[in-house]
Amino acid sequence: MYAEKERHVKANARDYNDKFSYADNHIKTSKYNVFTFLPINLFEQFQRVANAYFVVLLILQIIPEISSLSWFTTVVPLVLVLAITAVKDATDDYFRHKSDRQVNNRQSQVLIRGRYFITLDALYTCCQITCSNDYILETNLKVRQALTITSDLGDITKLMDFDGEVICEPPNNKLDKFTGTLYWRDNKYPLDNEKMLLRGCVLRNTEWCFGLVIFAGLQTKLMQNCGKTSFKRTSIDKLMNTLVLWIFAFLICMGVILAIGNTIWESQIGRNFQVFLPWDDFQRNAVFSGFLTFWSYIIIFNTVVPISLYVSVEVLRLGHSYFINWDRKMYYSQTDTAAEARTTTLNEELGQVEFIFSDKTGTLTQNIMVFSKCSINGKMFGDIYNEYDQKVEITEKTACVDFSFNPLCDPRFKFYDSSLVEAIKLEDLAVQEFFRLLALCHTVMPEEKSEGQLVYQAQSPDEGALVTAARNFGFVFRARTPETITLCEMGRAVTYQLLAILDFNNVRKRMSVIVRNPEGHIKLYSKGADTIIFDRLDPSNEDLMYTTSEHLNEFAGEGLRTLALAYKDLDEDDFDVWMKKLLFASTVIENREEQLAVLYEEIEQGLKLLGATAIEDKLQEGVPETIACLSLADIKIWVLTGDKLETAMNIGYSCNMLRDDMNEVFVISSHTVQEVQQQLRTAKEHILGLSRVSSTGDVEKTNMFAVDSVFEETIIAEYALVINGHSLAHALEPQLEHVLLDLACLCKTVICCRVTPLQKAQVVELVKRHKGAVTLAIGDGANDVSMIKSEYQDRSLLLMDPKAAHIGVGISGQEGMQAVLASDYSFAQFRYLQRLLLVHGRWSYFRMCNFLCYFFYKNFAFTLVHFWYAFFCGFSAQTVYDQWFITLFNIVYTSLPVLAMGLFDQDVNDQNSLRYPCLYKPGQQNLLFNKRQFFLCTLQGMGTSFLLFFIPYGAFSVMVKEDGSHFSDQQTFAVTIATSLVIVVSVQIGLDKHFWTAVNHLFIWGSLTVYFATLFAMQSDGMFGIFPRNFPFVGTARNCLSEKSVWLVILLTTVVCVVPGLAVSFLRADLFPTLTDKVRHLQQLRKREGPQEQNLRRVRRTSSRRSAYAFSHQQGFGELITSGKNMRRSTVSSVASPGRTPPSSTWIENVLKRKNEVSCANDESAGGPESSDGAKQTPKQQHTD
Predict the structure, then answer these.
(1) pLDDT of residue 726
(2) CA-to-CA dists, residue 1163 to 532, 910, 927, 1096, 1178, angstroms
């Protein structure tokens, strides 16, 4: 196949473009059509091992010499399963076809509610705009601008004469990048992503537009990202595959044993009966008879792994997913957003999570930014003071600044320090330049719906907050064109010529604009991370830099997001030279970004500092309580954020992940591999209290670290680890990753700051690879997709092989829908994660485990009766049951009760699941269904099958009918065992249930009714008269079940089968009660009291720790700020916090009291910050550099 290296597209030249055979705009996401559905779908289904296995059995059953079962015993269940799966696949594909037809028939020229829907990737050439010369794409609003040279092609005649040629990159999936060049009229013009309209976007602010098609149909960037999503499998799925292999091996062993038995029987006993039972012509000897018998028993024993198991599991998962979707307690009314299970394969995995990896901004916080404070020219604004010059706390009753002097102000904006307004009115030049920068340096798009009614559309909340602040202080951003920006400065309209935009990206961590003011002066305005801006300041700004840095420290202590602002006056001649270099670099196809970065770096030197901004991003409701509850469930929460170290730490204290009473908070902030290694190992040795570091600092090759996992279980003290992105990059190297992981797992809290999307994925993959624990990643933005899903829509976010958590959760917040679309589960607030895991996750795991245990139990009990019977029928592969009973047992008689148990059973209600988080731990430890539990339930099934066979066998040998005759026929024996089996498994499932509903009653009693109705119908004279060969048990049920002695045998068999298990359950609950048993007891005692909500009181903390840069302006689809090589080295001294009086009656103590009610003595230490003897720990914090 021809590999396209670059694309050539020429306007108004159909013959030229046809030479390349580019794709048309037709798309196809469906898999089947009317003719291909059956063969392709069957081919896909038979690729599953279970389905292929049953097809092989069906083929064996067709061979009369080895089959003692009719073909329909396998065909009916197999066809039913294939049909159900085919209907599901056909339904899914029907909706794909419907979506394809809708998209392919969409008229792209139709204006819908003021918005255009883009159906291909096109180069934007010109348009007519309702309010400016740009337009915006949703969901994350982005500005798109046409080339100035093509902006006058609005006339159809001019457009038809346009003959420019575009040479660009070939089709790819990089949504945030485009590299190309337009050749027209002997000139070259650079093309980038800002000039492109991508398929799937929605346009606003335009009456009409024209574009040149670059990619169409399946070659568009959106469709290039619609690859197959990697299938996530749960640990139970993997265990089931292993167990099925074990069962196959067990089945073969039984077949071999019985084949050997048949060989011995035929050689020693069977030869004596050849007069009555002669061998067939093909049966040459006893060994060959044993060989045939082996295959016969393989067919008979196939029901030990019923095909209905896989369908039942899918039905349960689908039901559990609907329960999540229907949960009103996870519905967020403010945004009309309900929880959504976007997959049906991971529900039980929600009950086994050990690690949660969470983003901060928009996930733990609201991502609604408010301009709170600022520092301008060394003076801080934002605080208010009383007449005694003491800082006054700002409350809802505090009077706001009066902005009535500004008719264009935003009435929703609140600021409390009137001195800043006074400085504006006094025309303080530094203050004016400060807000002028905020009004010019951004990518916000204004909409003026009526005179003075401005609405700002920003791609990040930070940008909107800063521009709104400038608006209220008299520097109003009114309009923009591709070449100008218009402000209203203190009531006076001023237009600036926009010369260049030095865009933000995750390496630069800053954005700059170059403008020419009305006086003709050229100025560069820049904003970005303080560490980045400070490194580019003119040396004359050193004193101001230190003063501003002190203010940043104060802002950090309040958890505010900060940004540094600077400007530079440019010389006209120097700028012209630089602009020529920029034009050349922007037309290069290869390495364009690297060359542009060098030019940006060149001009952004010698800046003059203006000040810094501080924006508040408040925590979401219920975050501290949710984190505390999940911690009590022994779930480790790691925060992975792009914010600065101090900001992340302060948020950690706000949501109680970090506390002053922790024994130690280790801060890793170094710049070399050796320093990072030393700090990690020193911290680990401090925790373990062992000295394992050699004098040279080399890693000792010792196996003493093998005992670290034991220490993890026994460490009582609480530690926290905070590491920045620069150190994390070194710590993730192969020689240090084990040390990092060991230390992190010894800590109660882990916070990674200044991390890139790639590092987020690497941290998740590290835990998955080495801990073998179930992981969950939660985030709200495109920068979180890398850790949420392995195959996601914006693959350009990762530079390496993508890794993702086992479970991905998306928050539908302010950052668009990228994380939600890539997630497995989504909801609107972080606090709903508590209910998703502790209620739905725990219930799903509990139900699935009980379902599997019971399923294997009943099938072993059902199937192994044939094994015992083989010793009494000469190993002849004669079946015990009627063939119709074998066919219907799993799909009719016992399918619905076990499904009802798997769907509706619950050991404790949702209130107690949240009240006692310790109930979650069995899932983490995989206690409810594992290889041991499988062995026990199969052993119980084998014991039941033994009793089911030998009790009726013994009874029938001594029992007579009411007329004095013996029970000597095999059919009566078969009906007795079958009836006993159905009743035993029905009673057993009733005893195993913890929560009865009307559906459970209906299915259990209904299944018994259906069994007896079917039994009498199939063994009636009428059925025998119509199908004599298929229904040989004529009248058996009527004659057998009319005997009182038979019912006594059935009753005796049921009691003997059920009582041992019942006794064990009672004794275990009484002598060795689990936490669940205790909570269930309390639940029954409190049943009349009604539900009681858990009341967790938030513990607030005042800290002076620095919390700084969290600039969220993003390039393309919004990558978070990442750590780079230009980060300034800083020196942080060790800090030891003073002792602190233990808090009284905290919410943690209340939780412990509830735990004491159920005597959870072994789990009490997980809930409180104090030890049981009340000894005070000296809180410490170790900063290392």
Answers:
(1) 84
(2) 47, 20, 17, 18, 23
**Token pair listed for 868:** 């015992």
* Residue 660 bears catalytic tag: no
Task: State pLDDT tens for residues 363-398.
Answer: 887 777 889 999 999 999 988 888 777 788 877 778
For residue 691, name the pLDDT band (cuts at 50, 70, 90): very low
pLDDT-above-70 percentage for the chain? 80
| Residue 382 backbone dihedrals phi, psi, to 5 degrees | 130, -30
* Predicted pLDDT of residue 778: 92
Instruction: State how far the Cα of 123 lies from the Cα of 482, in Å rounded to an integer.
Output: 16
pLDDT value at 1159 more than 60: no
Better-predicted residue by pLDDT, 536 or 459: 536
CA 44 to chain CA mean position, Å: 27
What confidence tens digit (pLDDT) does each residue in 954-988 have?
998 888 777 667 777 888 899 999 999 999 999 99
Report how far residue 465's alpha carbon sits from residue 458's, in angstroms, rounded to the nearest whole number.
Answer: 9
> Which range has the worst mean pLDDT, 95-99, 357-361, 422-426?
95-99
The catalytically annotated residue of 121, 134, 327, 359 is: 359
Percent of residues, the chain, with pLDDT higher than 90: 30
| Cβ atoms of residues 857 and 944 within 8 Å | yes
Residue whose C-alpha is closest to residue 200's, from 135, 123, 118: 118
CB neighbours of 541 closer than 8 A, spacing ≥ 6?
Answer: 607, 608, 609
Bridge partners for 183 per DSSP = 165, 188
CA 497 – CA 484 distance, rounded (Å):
4
Tally of CB atoms within 10 A around 921:
18
Token digits for 95? 């909706």
pLDDT at 277: 67
Which tokens sit at 85?
């799966």
**CA distance readout (Å), 739 to 592, 700, 719, 736:** 39, 12, 16, 5
Residue 722 has phi, psi (to 5 degrees) of -125, 125
Region for 559 from its dihedrals, namely left if φ exceeds 0, alpha if ψ lies in -120 to 50, beta otherwise: left
Which pairs count as long-range contacts for 245-251, CB under 8 Å and 24+ apart, including other chains?
A: 247/304, 247/305, 248/305, 250/304, 251/298, 251/301, 251/302, 251/304, 251/305
**Nearest residue to 1123 (alpha-carbon basis) of 726, 783, 730, 727:** 726
Maximum Cα interatomic distance, the chain, rounded to a whole number of Å:
124
Spell out the residues 6+ positions from residue 467 whose beta carbon is closer than 8 angstroms to its own.
Answer: 438, 439, 442, 444, 456, 458, 477
Contacts of 1150 (CB under 8 A, 6+ apart): 1095, 1096, 1097
Structure-block tokens of residue 578: 């630089």
Q: For the chain, give percent helix, strand, coil, nearest 5.
A: 45, 15, 35
Length, in residues, of the chain: 1185
997: pLDDT strictly greater than 80:
yes
Contact present, 339 and 325 (Cβ < 8 Å): yes
In sequence order, the β-bridge partners of residue 360 are: none
- C-alpha–C-alpha distance, residues 1074 and 1157, integer Å: 13
**Buried-state track 51-77, b at ≥16 Cβ within 10 A, e below 16:** bebbeebbebbeeeebbbbbebbbebb
Beta pairing partners, 774: 353
Look at strands 636-640 and 353-358 and give their pairing.
parallel
Residue-wise DSSP of 161-182 = H---EEEEPPS---TT---EEE
The residues near 210 (Cβ < 8 Å, ≥ 6 apart) are 125, 126, 127, 153, 154, 159
217 has a pLDDT exceeding 90: no
pLDDT given for residue 1131 in this prediction? 33
**Secondary structure E strands in 529-642:** 561-570, 608-619, 636-640
Please state the rounded mean pLDDT for residues 920-932: 92
pTM of the model: 0.73
